[in-house]
Amino acid sequence: MRSFYRPLAVIGVAIAALGSFAFVPFGKVPVGKTIVVKMIDKSPTEFTFEPLLVTASPGDVVQFIQTSATPHNVEFKETPAGADLGEAKSGAYMVAPNQKYEIQIDARFKSGSYRFVCVPHETLGMKGSLTIVSGK
Description:
mainly beta; 34% strand; globular; 8 strands
């Protein structure tokens, strides 16, 4: 009888040990912190991202939040070699307060500096920079 229970105990310990690990599907990045970047109208001719300089790590989410009814968007103009942002390269225009354009820093993003702009207000200085650093 005793030999029957021993394998069950070993299986129970193995299952308990596995339960203490977080499994992440291949190609997925665990979610880190959320970084908020506001799109602000300072005046009828002055627009900005706040903050202008953002630093993120893999797994973080960068959330661009519209604060007015003036149309704003986010487009990455410069990216490091090897980065392939695909559809995340340019977000839709937002025209209502609290609309969001959210991107997760995942395998599309390589370490380095990314320059982003609001296309209609780029010439008025609505520009920012996202730096991706590996590790937390």
